[in-house]
Amino acid sequence: MSQTVDRALSILPLLAEGPADLGQVADRLGVHKSTALRLLRTLHEHGLVYRQADQRYRLGARLFALAQEAVENLDVREIAHPHLVELNEQCGHTVHLAVHEENEVLYIDKVESRYPVRMYSRIGKPVAITVAAVAKLLLADLPEAERRALASTLDYPRYTARSTPDAAAFLAELAKVREQGWATDLGGHEESINCVAAPVRGADGRVVAAMSVSAPNVVVSAEELLTLLPLVRRTADAISREYSGSTPTKEA
């Protein structure tokens, strides 16, 4: 039974390359045409493949519907939360998860620092979009035209001397973040608070959320916080793999 399931599932990536006839499917699977036909008929009955008028098979509409339904039902917060808790246990600092919705970047999860000094951020609260590290990651992933259009509509409050001053500087920062794949806010919103962030990506590689570690200067310096970047990125990658359903690469 497991071999039959394996063969049937092997047909799907083949048809993802384009329509194929019965002989091509049988050759790729290394089975007799009668076996390939049984597998194709079963997949056809479930709407996962479709037989065209030219007798070639392609992926069926039901497969796309299932994929879309699966994506819509994914809860990135639910998937990410155990990873955020684990990261908090390892570093002790405040951990956030944020998403981009309707021209705002919102915190959707938070794990509090173990230290007495706490951040006032809270779940559901918009971030300071022009300076926050999570916002930079989410907005950097937008197509260039969208980034430029958004940058031209934003206000640029001078929270501190390190705040992003204008649209040109903001676009330059987003380009840098897009290239390096991570972001920081080193006193841009509050002089005493530093933050380092990494992206959570979906199966298509697009950024679906951003997670960060933040800490005040009285607890840890900016330089010390930046040493946590590899750990933050590994955590974001682990969330991305689970969210997208991909298998982690085995180390040699």
Automatic annotation (TrEMBL):
UniProt keywords, alphabetically: DNA-binding, Transcription, Transcription regulation
Residue stretches making up the IclR-ED domain: 62-245
Entry-linked SMART domains: HTH_ICLR (SM00346)
Chain ranges of the HTH iclR-type domain: 2-61
Keyword Transcription part of the UniProt annotation: yes
Keyword Ribosomal protein: no
One protein family per Pfam: IclR_C
InterPro entries: GAF-like_dom_sf, HTH_MetabolicPath_Reg, Tscrpt_reg_IclR_C, Tscrpt_reg_IclR_N, WH-like_DNA-bd_sf, WH_DNA-bd_sf
PROSITE patterns reported in the protein's UniProt record: HTH_ICLR, ICLR_ED
Name of the protein in question: IclR family transcriptional regulator
Species of origin: Streptomyces bugieae
